[in-house]
Design a protein that fits this description.
It is built from 4 helices and 7 strands, in the order E-E-H-E-E-H-E-H-E-E-H. By secondary structure, the chain is of the alpha/beta class. The strands form 2 sheets. A 4-stranded mixed sheet has the order 1-7-6-5. Strands 2-3-4 form a 3-stranded mixed sheet.
């Protein structure tokens, strides 16, 4: 099956620019109630995923950090603990299934490595459930 069927396109995905501040990151994640958000550079290339855990561990190590001073800290200063793997748009369902075991979503890139969207874990689980239901 073509994974494009499951793709949530870039324009519908909440992303962060790689030069966002810590405060912008916190506010965007809180507003949308997401625990993980893709990071995109100025060329449109996926550079990673920031998680709530990344932010919490960073803030725990910075005793001088306040919410007001968080606008001076760049997201690029926050170490990302998890390396979410990407797939190309022509990836197989097996590729997606293996990655969604350990990722909430799978970033999808084109042939030039530009971010084009995500496939959510829930979409893959629904697909697998329908396949199992049809076998019974």
């Amino acid at each position: 099956m073509n994974i494009a069927f499951f793709l949530l396109p870039k324009q519908d995905v909440v992303c962060l620019p790689h030069d966002a501040t810590l405060r912008q990151t916190l506010e965007r994640m809180e507003y949308h109630r997401y625990t993980a958000v893709p990071i995109i550079n100025e060329e449109g290339v996926y550079t990673g995923t920031v998680t709530e855990g990344d932010l919490l561990w960073y803030m725990k190590s910075r005793h001088d950090l306040t919410f007001e001073s968080a606008n001076k800290v760049k997201l690029s200063e926050v170490p990302l603990r998890i390396n979410n793997k990407t797939v190309n748009i022509d990836a197989t369902m097996d590729d997606l299934i293996s990655l969604t075991k350990i990722q909430n979503f799978v970033p999808v890139v084109d042939d030039r490595n530009h971010f084009i969207g995500i496939v959510r874990r829930s979409e893959i689980i629904d697909y697998c459930q329908k396949g199992l239901s049809q076998r019974i």
